[in-house]
Each structure stands twice: as structure tokens, then as C-alpha cells.
Amino acid sequence: MNSKLGFGRFLAATAALVFVAAACGSTGGGNPSPASKGTLTVAGFNFPESSILAEIYGQALAHDGYTINYKLLLGTREVVAPALESGQLDLYPGYAATDLEFYNKGAGEANGDATATTAKLNSHLSPLGLVALDPSAAVDQNAFAVTKATQTKYNLTSLSDLAPIGGQLTLGAGPECPTRPFCQPGLKSTYGITFKAFKALDTDGPLTRAAFKNGSIDVGLVFSSDGDLNSLGLVVLKDDKHLENADNVVPILRQAAASDEVKKVLNAIDAKLTTADLITLNSQVSIQHQDADAVATAWLQQHNYAS
Amino acid sequence: MSVISLVAQWFADPAHWSGPDGIPQRLVEHVEISAVSVAIGAVIALPIGIALGHYGRFGNVAINISNVGRALPSFGVLVIAFQVLGLGNLPILVALVALAIPPMVTNSYVGLSEVDPDVKEAARGMGYRELAQLLRVELPLAVPLVMAGIRTSAVQVVATATLAALIAGGGFGRYIIDGFAQQDYTKLAAGALLVAALAMATELSLSALERVLVPRGIRLQRAPVARRVTTFKTA
């Protein structure tokens, strides 16, 4: 009898909680008026770098007087973007080229120029009531790395340097690389690199790392902002002919939330953030196991946002 | 165009029959890793199963351990072995040997333990010492089951060796993994067909070997009565 009553109360309490949460959701994520600094909901994708970026944007806005709700590790773009459109979120840290190709349904409009790609992205965002701000210099994109030993041996700095010696080198990347324009075919058409052999591994995963380690590949596909590149002794070669799309970090907001003040705060962050910062921040989280919010706070303090 | 004709075209393309990614090379890789795994597995499993079956003790232990072995997912073993052993054929070998052992242990145990006690007693009575009795009486009688174990292991190993491609290995799995990654579903289907065909070829050739190895007496005993030349009285 008692336990039944307890269960009934539990049900009632749960129902009340859900109701309250729903009510909070509709006001909390709502339209902050620019005059009174309101509440903003910042989301992040389901990988650590996105949490770090969301924390940096969120804490910078909090520093400016906004109240921030975080929805970190929310999911993939397929989850986050509809939530932004429906007003459940106010902003997320996007990547110019990938977001463009998401919103244009893979029309292939992205290119290596961050400003042009962001402009194109905005043409797809504005009908949806969304807006992308200034792209930062920080970029998380496909990149080709070599070991420090290989770099020294052939005196490499950019991908162009690989063209004359490609015939002596083995390329390692995901098994899709031989058919993807950004990978083997692109290296051939844009840079004129023909490799001695190709080894099917993974995209910047444990297989690629193991293959670098035991010397079965010379050049491997990695992500430019990877936290462990330095500790693995890998050097990213400069994409001097812009084969890769411009996946520069860019905040994407609901227009209703993008007041001049919010834009000013976020653009100031974008102006300071670099790829080297991303590598450091990612390594602090993925290798040293620090929390994304602490890492973001430290970065903001370095850039004169007292906490 | 239908999938079947696309796959047929894929097989007809001479480019797919040569080079490091050609069918002959992938076949060699696939057969090599499978054969080595089954051989190592047999060297480990058969003595254990045969000894336990012969002495008729610890049978439950053997069957249970081997059932636990069957429950081990090969992919899991592969990933863990890769973490420990790094890139190369070794982690694949570990996963496939682990897969190959259980059916061989179970079948050889059952085969040996089910040899008729009267036959064993008769062998003793005729003056066979223990080793001779095992090798010349019990083992020949157990050949059908022992071979069935080897066949089951071999077919499973051939089918599972496809996983090698997940950790950058060779074999027919390469076509399946690459075909999926490249959205080249013709290549994927061709790879699946090749694996299936190789598994069936393994089954058929080991069945043929089994027929050769099974002693005449047992073969006769299992044949329909009409075809028996002599009748053996077993019990």
C-alpha cells in the first residue's frame, strides 16, 4: 500500500518535472532582447573539439553578461541543425565547408576559400532564419601529415614538395581515399602527386597511427586540429594549392539571437582563434584529460577575458 | 542494370584479375591466413580434445571452455589483439585461431569419447598398448567427427577472415570494406560472392578429404545396407 502510494507520488513528481522542464525549454531557449542581456542556449556536436568551442563561445558571452545554457555532445549535425532551426538552440560552433554542404544537401559549392564558403553558407542559412558569423582562422579539415623524420629527409613544408618524390612514398588513408576528390585523385590532379602505393587504413584513426609508427606509410590523412599530432611526431604539410575545403570554425546562430552585441563578442573570439590553438586545446582534453570548460576558461584568460 | 550483370561485368574486367588488388593476390592472402590459422588451431585443439576424449575425463570442462570460446566475438578479439600487437597479420591470426579452436576441441572430444567401450576392451584383449589402441583403433573410429570439427572450423575461419580488412589486412574482405567505403556496391557484392564461394570450396574439399581418411570399415557401416559388402557387428 505504502509503496503504491510512493509510486504514485513518484509519477506525479516526474510528470511535474517534465512539465516544468518543457516550460523552461520554451522560455529559456527563447528570444533574448538585445537591451536586457538574456539567456542563450549553446550546443555542441558529439566530439570533444565541439564542446571546447561551444564553451569558448558560451563563456565569452557569459563574460559579456548573458546567461548561458549548454547542450554539449548533443549529437551530429543531423540532430543539432534542426534543433537550431526550431529555436531549441541559439548557436553552435560550425565548420564553414561542412555546414555549407549540409545545408545545400551536398551540392559541392564549398571550396578552399573560407570567406567565399561562408558567404555561400549564409545564402543557404538566411531563408531558414539562421546566420553564420565571420570564419575564424582555426580550421579542422583533412590534411596530409608526414613524420618529422620524413620531413627532414626530403625537406618538406607543403604538399607541392611531394610532387617530385611521390613515386617513392606510400599514402595511407581510409579505404574511400582512392575515389574521393579531396584525397588521392585530388592530390594527383591538383598537385601532380602519384604515390608508389596506397594502403587502406582509416580516417585519422588508430590504424593510421600504427602505420606511421611501423613505417608502412610515409604520408597519411589526418585532421588538421588533432590534439596528438605533436606528440606523435607528425607534421602537417601545408595545403598550398587549397585542395581541401575551408572547414574554418564559424559560429552559426539563429538570426533572432544574433544581436549586434552577440555578433561582436563572437567575432572577437573568431579573430583570435587559430588552428595551433585548436591542436593545443584538443590535446589538453584528449591526452591530458582536462575538462572542456576548464580548457576553454584558460584560453579565454590568456586572451584577456578575466573570469 | 541489374546487380547480377554489374557483378558479372566486374568479374569480366581483366583489371580485377591482376596486380596487388587483383583476385589472385587477394585469394592467396585469404587462403594463406585461413590455412595458417586452422593449422595452428588444430595443433592446439586436437591433442586436447583427443586426450580428454580418450581418458573420458574433464569432458564437461572441455565442452564448457570451448563453448565460452565460441561466444567470443571475433571482431572483439581482433580489436583487442590489434591494440596489443599493432598493425600486421598477427592480430588477425590471434582472432582466427581463437575462432578455430572450439569446434575442433568439442568434436574430437565427442568423437573419441563415443568410441564403443566394447571395441576398446577388445583392442586391449588383443594386446594393444594404450598408445597403439588410441592411434590404431580409437582415432580411426573417431575420424568422421574429428574431421567434421576441422571442417566447421575451416569454413568459419574462411568466412571470418574477411575481418582482416578492418585492420588494414588483405584477403577478399578488402573488396567488401573498400566497396562499402567507396560506395562501389558492385565491388562489395563481388567480394561477398568470392568469400562465399571460397567457404563452399573449403567445405567441399574437406568433405572429400574426410571421405578419403575415413577407414573402409566405417564407410561401409555407414553406407546403405544394400551396398555393404560385408556386415560388421558392432554391438
Q: What portion of the residues of chain A fall into strands of 2 or more residues?
A: 15-25%
Instruction: Estimate what percentage of residues of chain B fall within beta strands.
Output: under 5%
Total tally of structural domains of chain A? 2
Let me know the CATH homologous superfamily of chain B: MetI-like
Low-confidence spans of chain B: pLDDT under 50, at least 5 residues?
228-235
Based on CA atoms alone, the radius of gyration of chain A comes out at 22 Å
In the CATH scheme, the class of the largest domain in chain A would be Alpha Beta
Question: What distinguishing features does this structure have?
Answer:
heterodimer, A: 307 residues, alpha/beta, D-Maltodextrin-Binding Protein, domain 2, 2 domains, five-stranded mixed beta sheet, three-stranded antiparallel beta sheet, 11 helices, disordered N terminus, B: 235 residues, mainly alpha, MetI-like fold, 10 helices, 75% helix
Structure explained in plain terms:
Helices cover 43% and strands 17% of the residues of chain A. Chain A is α/β, with parallel strands linked by helices and 307 residues long. Chain A folds into two domains: 12-139 and 247-302, Periplasmic binding protein-like II (D-Maltodextrin-Binding Protein, domain 2), CATH 3.40.190.10; 142-236, Osmoprotection protein (prox), domain 2 (D-Maltodextrin-Binding Protein, domain 2), CATH 3.40.190. In chain A, the strands form three sheets. A five-stranded mixed β-sheet of chain A has the order 7-6-8-5-9. In chain A, helix 7 (184-191) links the parallel strand 6 (170-173) and strand 7. In chain B, helix 2 runs antiparallel to helix 7 (130-160), helix 4 crosses helix 5 (90-113) and helix 5 packs across helix 7. Chain B is elongated. Chain B has one domain: Orthogonal Bundle (MetI-like fold), CATH 1.10.3720.10. Chain B is built from ten helices and no strands. With 235 residues, chain B is mainly alpha-helical. The chains are: A alpha/beta (307), B mainly alpha (235). At the A-B interface, strand 7 and helix 8 of A face helix 8 of B.
